[in-house]
Design goal:
2 helices; elongated; 58 residues; alpha+beta; 21% strand
Length: 58
């Protein structure tokens, strides 16, 4: 996530994705990704309701 910016600003410790991804000194300490089934439900609901949904990750 934002690797170029982190390098430029010398950031190697951060909490992101609403506390679902935590890195300390470049080492991932915690990760709790959403389940594929949850993402599929979210995507389906946004399409049905004509909303915009943006998902990003690795």
């Amino acid at each position: 996530m934002y690797e170029d910016l982190r390098k430029e600003l010398d950031i190697n410790t951060y909490v992101s994705y609403n506390c679902q991804y935590v890195v300390l000194n470049g080492e991932v300490l915690y990760t709790n990704p959403l389940k594929i089934s949850s993402l599929e439900k979210l995507t389906a609901a946004t399409l049905i309701n004509n909303h915009t949904c943006c998902l990003y990750g690795s």
